[in-house]
Amino acid sequence: MLEEARLRTQTLQQTMQAQNIPMAIFTDESSIAYLAGFWGYLGVEFGRPTMLVVFADREPVIITPLMESEMVGEMTWVTAIERWEDFGQRSWHYVLRNTIALHAENPRQLWVEKGSLPAIVRNFLDEQYPSATLEDIAPTLGAMRMIKSPLEIEVMKQAGSIAGAMMSAAHQSLHEGAQEYESALAVIDAGTRAAAGFLTDKGWDRFVSPMIHNLQILQSGRDASMVHRRASIKKYASGDPVYFCFCNMAQFKQYKLGFDRMFHIKAISDKAKHVQQAAIDAQQAALASIRPGVSAEEVAAAANDVYQSRGYETGYRTGRSIGMAYLEAPELKTGDKTILKPGMTFAVDGGISIDGEHAGRIGDSIVVTEDGFDYLTEYPRQIMVTSN
């Protein structure tokens, strides 16, 4: 992983040279992980920014809190690590200013990730360099991140295997009278155990936690149409639809997948069956259209045609690019004309919500191949009714 991260950074530096970008400041956790190979857990939300400064013509520099610097040094290939302290003359402001000065004392431009630049960093740059314009490096790096390497795809397949274990546990947890939070606990346990099976306690691996975390997205019964509701103490009743979304939980080594399934407790109404089948068919139509040379919006159009033919309308996108960030470019939606290429990875969804009544949901992660696509996630793509 670290050697690949180093090679990515070299490629970025070559691109920066070609685009006349002398220096870029990265603050997004996923970008830093992608280029430098490390990540932390208590970052800018605790007032402790971590930054990676990439120069076009010299070695990059990591700026990190002193308390995390030992771990960072073990996790990254970057050798220039500047440590900052919470007070005194070694604050992060001081360290960042000195690092920028390696390029220029008063730069005319500062290249940053404008869409995710933390406010405290933005305020410092505005105050310290009032005459400098902020330019966006995100599209340059984003273009690199669109196409996944064989190593990245292998890690995402492992994440998919972990997600499959999570969905199986979710399915097995469902029975009349059980509570939503019990399903969430079963998912966390199964996913964590599956992730641990892919790890060792040696080298870089020992810093990768197998723990599956985040609040489980789960809707059941009349709440099934409430997208992104969290697991509660609600008990399942016969006939209840139950929806699991793992889009904030199915992840491994920082690679984040999309994965969704809908189940029904013991029975399913004709209306619910119609809605769910429409969602499944829309997803399958979208997937059938995926191949190199097709535009992102054409994939969305294939799903939308199914919704319309079944009498439904949807405001949802059909999918999103996945990787180290929850949302990468491109998106499978109307207006995105990006042409699909082998190595792109997507979460592809079927989704219908009828407020207070019904919902149909399904989602998988895939990788675009030379002649179509391969699934990264596996679980039955059909209407599923439990026997308990």
Per-chain topology:
Blueprint: H1 2-18, E1 23-26, H2 29-36, E2 51-55, E3 61-65, H3 69-75, E4 81-84, H4 92-100, E5 109-112, H5 119-128, E6 133-136, H6 138-145, H7 150-172, H8 180-196, E7 217-220, E8 241-245, E9 251-252, E10 255-256, E11 260-264, H9 270-288, H10 296-309, E12 319-321, E13 328-332, E14 345-354, E15 358-368, E16 373-375, E17 384-385
Parallel strand pairs: 1-5, 3-4, 5-6, 11-17
Antiparallel strand pairs: 1-2, 2-3, 7-8, 8-11, 9-10, 12-13, 12-14, 14-15, 15-16
Helix pairs in contact: 1-2, 7-8, 9-10
Structure description:
The protein has 388 residues and is of the alpha+beta class. The protein folds into two domains: 2-145, Creatinase/prolidase N-terminal domain (Creatine Amidinohydrolase, Chain A, domain 1), CATH 3.40.350.10; 150-385, Creatine Amidinohydrolase. It has helices at residues 2-18, 29-36, 69-75, 92-100, 119-128, 138-145, 150-172, 180-196, 270-288, 296-309, and strands spanning 23-26, 51-55, 61-65, 81-84, 109-112, 133-136, 217-220, 241-245, 251-252, 255-256, 260-264, 319-321, 328-332, 345-354, 358-368, 373-375, 384-385. The strands form four sheets. It has a six-stranded mixed beta sheet with strand order 4-3-2-1-5-6, with helices on both faces. α7 (150-172) packs antiparallel against α8 and α9 runs antiparallel to α10. The chain starts with a helix and ends with a strand. The mean pLDDT is 95.
